[in-house]
């Protein structure tokens, strides 16, 4: 089985160019070879053709390089490697999306792309990175990687990177400060002047999270208002029917208008709902959860080598131009193998659309194009006859 | 720069230039009766730092006053350096930085910008700062200062004057602290300030002793292995993960220690930052957040990978909470 994939990967590496990272000779490379359990680490290359030779002769199942660059990238310990700097890496994986376990592969790819769009909006609008400082790559698996190589970020430490992650995921957002009390008028009661205070929502054009929250709240209010069944709409945000009814009751025409003008002085219930749904809408789901996982704040993590193949799908780690993300379809554009028919033995029914063709396969012996055979064998749901 | 401004900000390049131009030797400052006032004020700076946590604003009625104030700053630094206590170095650096902050808030934008620039914090005329400069200098361990709560646009953050002054405070604290570590005070400083240096040294030692009595070997030996390990890591300055710090602080707090006592335990760490540590401790113990966090149990500690399984002992296997372990050991000794 490994033999089939290995041969296929070899034929790919023999005729393809891979993307060489900047500061090539300063990077650590790492590989997992077919049948090998352990990752081979601490490899470095002086010349590019040395890396190509490894890919072509030894044909790894997975190929990685370090986001960091070092004085001695092949030294065995971090101390001896001597860290010089590191790209800033964001890892979006469908695994982390709520409800991922119920999604098909294609649904996951679709959902994770939405997260990618949100991430890029943060990186470009808020952080001011430009396309020339960034690279976006389909991971070959269930997600995307975004590399930022702006010279100002290369030397940031772990703590500072964590702040950037917290920004993008909305962690530590001070919700109490989002709505601010403001005196809108003073009323006179006989001799006494009484200030009338209102809770004011941020304006849509404010920088940072405040503006984002404001835009998301207005958007949600419009959606609820325009929807023929507002209660259902609210329930789709995970609110109970009982609570949804209460909220709709509170949303009179006059109140709706006030919200759009920036006054969200309604009941705390409504405020909580809109704020929470806005934060959920704006924040990006990044891989930050599990302890043993490489994360953005890590200044010395490994990342898949662009242009290499993912051993469990046979899909290419594919660069995606930022203005082509909408059209990018991993199951078409990251597919590298051809149409030659291959006989496989499928262990369970499988449905997928790849390279524009829909497959609806039953278990048992079937003939499929090579690209699908590689994908299914890689995912261990088929064997080559 | 005029002499009164130099007296307010004696750490600035221009103020140091004043000292140089006066052509007074260290010897003269330490011994000449002419500079008695500078020596007194230098001692005052150190006492203020210890007692109040902030250096006072000294009145400078005339140029002589101002000059004495300028000279009192290097005197204070020599005293602190000669005592050789890391706790004091940190505390003094913070106390000077806090005073500078309080003065800066009363200056105009242009002045604050100039001082910020001298500390490598580059802000534009409109008080905008690039986010990497912000991250390097802002106290982001406090919720209010987290990047997520700042108006970030196109990589730039618009700050208010007081906010920029606060970044200067942090940068100044670090600078003074680092300078104190490298500073080799002249040997005769101990003679000149013999009484005071001894008094402060004793005070620092007494605090050390108190600490040892409160939480000396006897009670540390009653800590469960996980907490002993975390404490050792914190004291040797090994970077412990956030959850580890949380577990340790909440445990120490439940075991009856107050903020000051916990602070002193942490003050051994090389990257000790009193203000940050205090904030974190008070956050966990409920003084700031209003929520007093409970010390986590064994299952959480295991989940976070903080349980040193190979060091587990018989009591560990009987209990499911580090505090139960601690109390069990207390009872066992009776």
Question: Notable features of this structure?
Answer:
A: alpha+beta, DNA primase, PRIM domain, Ribosomal Protein L9, domain 1, four-stranded antiparallel beta sheet, 12 helices, flat, B: three-stranded antiparallel beta sheet, 19 helices
How is this structure best described in words?
Chain A has 385 residues and is α+β, with helices and mostly antiparallel strands. Chain A folds into three domains: 211 residues, Alpha-Beta Complex (DNA primase, PRIM domain), CATH 3.90.920; 107 residues, no CATH class; 49 residues, Ribosomal Protein L9, domain 1 (3-Layer(aba) Sandwich). In chain A, the strands form five sheets. In chain A, strands 1, 2, 3, 4 and 10 form a five-stranded antiparallel β-sheet that branches. Chain A has a four-stranded antiparallel β-sheet with strand order 5-7-6-11, with helices on one face. Among the domains of chain B are: 104 residues, no CATH class; 119 residues, no CATH class. Chain B is 64% helix and 2% strand. The relative contact order of chain B is 0.09. The mean pLDDT of chain B is 86.
What's this model, at a glance?
The complex is a heterodimer of chains A (385) and B (334). Chain A is α+β, with helices and mostly antiparallel strands and 385 residues long. Chain A is 35% helix and 24% strand.
